[in-house]
Amino acid sequence: MIKDITIGQFFPGKSFIHKMDARAKFSLMFAFIIIIFVCKNLVSLGIVFGFALFMIILSKVAIKTILKSFKMIVFIIILTSALQIFYNSKGTVLFDWWKIKVTDIGMLTALFMAVRIITLILSSSLLTYTTSPTLLTDAIERLFSPLKILRINVSTLAMMMTIALRFIPILIDEVDRIMSAQKARGADLETGGLIKRAKALLPIFIPLFVNSFRRAFELAYAMECRCYKGGEGRTRMTAMKMHIRDFFAVFVIAGLLAGVIWVNRVFVALI
Amino acid sequence: MPVLETKNLTYQYGAGTPFCVTALDDVSVSIEKGELVGIIGHTGSGKSTLMQHFNALLKPDKGQVLLEGKDINENKQAGLEARFKVGLCFQYPEYQLFEATVYKDIAYGPANMKLDGKEVDARVRQAAEYVGIPPDMLEKSPFDLSGGEKRRAAIAGVMAMRPEILILDEPTAGLDPSGRSKIMELIVNYKKTTGNTVLLVSHSMDEIAAVSDRILVMKGGKIAMFDSVKHVFGRVSELISMGLFVPEITNIMLKLKERGVGVRTDIFTLEGAANELLHLLFLH
Amino acid sequence: MRDNEYILQFNNVCFRYEGDEENVVLPLALDNINLNIKKGEFVAVLGHNGSGKSTLAKLCNALLVPESGKVIAAGMDTSDSIHEYDIRQHIGVVFQNPDNQIVATIVEEDVAFGPENLGVEPKEIRRRVDEALKTVGMYEYRLHEPHKLSGGQKQRVAIAGILAMMTDCIVLDEPTAMLDPIGRREVLKTIGKLNKELGITIVFITHFMNEAVAADRVIIMDSAKILLDGTPKEVFKERNLLKKVGLGIPPAAELAHKLRKTLPDFPDGILTADEFAERFITYARA
Description:
The structure holds 3 protein chains of 3 kinds. By secondary structure, chain A is mainly alpha-helical. Chain A has 10 helices and 2 strands, in the order H-H-H-H-H-E-E-H-H-H-H-H. Chain A has helices at about 15-20, 20-40, 40-60, 65-70, 75-85, 105-130, 135-145, 155-185, 195-225, 245-265, and strands at about 95, 100-105. A two-stranded antiparallel sheet of chain A has the order 1-2. In chain A, strand 1 (about 95) and strand 2 (about 100-105) form a beta hairpin. Chain A is flat. Chain B is of the alpha/beta class. Chain B is built from 11 helices and 10 strands. Chain C has helices at about 55-60, 85-90, 105-115, 120-135, 150-165, 180-200, 210, 230-235, 240-245, 250-260, 275-285; strands at about 5-15, 30-40, 40-45, 70-75, 75, 90-95, 170-175, 200-205, 215-220, 225-230. In chain C, helix 3 packs parallel to helix 5 (about 150-165). In chain C, about 50% of the residues are buried. By secondary structure, chain C is an alpha/beta fold. The longest helix of chain C has 18 residues, at about 180-200. Chain C is about 40% helix and about 20% strand. The radius of gyration of chain C is 20 Å and the shape is globular. Classes of the chains: A mainly alpha, B alpha/beta, C alpha/beta. Chains in contact: A-B, A-C, B-C. The interface between A and C is large, with 32 and 42 residues.
């Protein structure tokens, strides 16, 4: 159940996208998200959606895993698009019953919203699918290092992020284990009112916190043993280097932006 | 009638995904009332998955689990009853302690059974006695106990439900030798006093050999052997080919046999080995 | 750094933990410990829980410093905080729970963590990481996620993480306690290899008697003190003492002892099944 979430997971590989510099990938993915919002009509959004699909295929991440991550948010997509259908009264009425009016523009807007959300999720999950969490935090650390001037300790924040990513699967397993153990002692987590249910969670959360503290202490010792003393003087095994492919990607994304702006102007009619 | 029985039990993790693993494959096994069954097998052989079917924590994909002849997955009520009738104590159970006092923690299971206060009190005190936790320790915080004491308090929490069948998943893991022998002792005593069925999962062949009536060997989600201790450890070469180990004493007999000494290898106790070797020496 | 034949020296070391409550002084966790460990030695430290053996591990590389007395690690006084990181470059510690000592989300990135902290050149880090992973037999897993590995594999990754810092002494605090028999065997084999092939000093803390048999030297700890110190043969001879402090005897030694009751001339000092078989056959022929 909890283990089905694939958003944020990393799938090692050797594709063009995998090999891109993490900093370039992070920035371009950000640019791509802006482009999604620049799209004003279905044609430009269609192009951007197609591009996102192309990147997924290029990354060689199994389509199945990506579809699985959609399972969790299908509800949000349906809800947002449904709202568009029901709240849009402009355009030709296609269907009218009681207070519900469905118009052609309403339908198109709904489709537009659905595709936009899907594209957003595709592109942002592609970033985590193809970049190891450590590289990703490294990239964030380096991209945000100018914040040092504001006395923000970026490297410590990045280290915290790495540790969080490392311990999420461990803690998910732990929750599973504690839940099973308490259920075996007759814990009832599924019935009763809000207060009763909240109370029933105590036997799960107290051991989880106690165990997390224990883990944190042990990890602190282990990190000290390996001479961790903050970001100062730290080097990296994989030096980050921009390659021709990264510059190439910058051009492709710039081209995409130009194309989207042009399409926006040409096809004004489709919503 | 066996107290616990599975019929053609099959279970898969992540069914329908590329990571699908068949954890149990057509397992049929029956356990008699009052016996102590040792369960051995590799990590990943399906032991833990099987245990979690016995109290309906997991529901089989195919097949049945029968507790005293009744299918525990028939309806929700039967499943809940199975939780209390089959007490399952997980690995490292001390990591599930949460209450303010040891007493309250042991009382968690009986309280969930909706028993009245007096009955809960009686069960807590009796369970504490089974595991050797003195009355004054009951008022302490479980987090102030030593590792071995925490482990025993957690086991008491399962015993306090007075299950017909007690399942212990590696109850001695991570403890030092004296902690281990204390736990093994209390398991044997518990079985003797209550006459209840006990299932014991362990990686230590010496522990399994010392206390079991029968041994269940699992391999790749199937039952590889289910027989008396003597017969199971008599099939030494098969065990070794499964990547399992044999009791140290059996290992010594094997080493002797490898070097051409005509000894029996289905021996797993110190006394048995000493007698066999003395017999051999005086014969010549 | 002074060149000297000892990598670790404990001189009259006492240590106690601070309690949660004020005015409550906890008993000594280590009580006047004197111990010298030579370079290249393989020392096993045995004792029941709470005997002080884990505290001993943490004092080896300045994670804790003594209340009184001195710990000299690789020629440096651990009480002098200037040396803290130098000491840890020489003396690494591997802990019991492999999950709680792996920092990164990819195996090779975790092994790189130590050298990265030391500011080693990227190329050199790469070389050390590959070599360390090959030494522990985890090179093929270098791109795996740690949480998908078995316990024994994780523990070997943790050992590689220390190896990559080029330490010359590794202290292992019950590294096998949480593993299954196969994981235990993997880790033991790796430890033996580090000592025999790379000449790394090993301080191996455990409560499994049979794991201590392979060591050059066995130290038994009980109630904050060193009770016995000698070769495995010398130490395991003290049957009654070991039983009194809650430690078991290797079954081969037990069996030999049992035979000696009927056959007083049956050989003494047997520790492993192989040894037993050899000695039994020689005895039977005579």
